[in-house]
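It is worth pausing here to work through a concrete case rather than discussing structure prediction in the abstract. The textbook approach is simple: state the sequence, then state the predicted structure, then interpret. We follow exactly that order.
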Amino acid sequence: TYSIDSSPLFYSKMGIMNIYFTALGEHTERLTGIMSQELRSFKQLNATAEEIERSKVQILSSYLMGLEHTE
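Step two, the predicted structure:
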């Protein structure tokens, strides 16, 4: 059994994406390898400027929508 989650952190000039998991001890090594492989694959995708801009707009929109629900 395992759980994988991620969360972005926004700063004025940069951001951080936390990716983390929990797993039973016997699955930790295998899951670490799988996550490392996926991150390497993602890095090799070479996103276009248009894809990056679309992602930025999506992140900003999600952040702003979240602000509307804080009271």
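Step three, interpretation. The longest helix spans residues 49-68. Strands lie at 2-10, 15-23.
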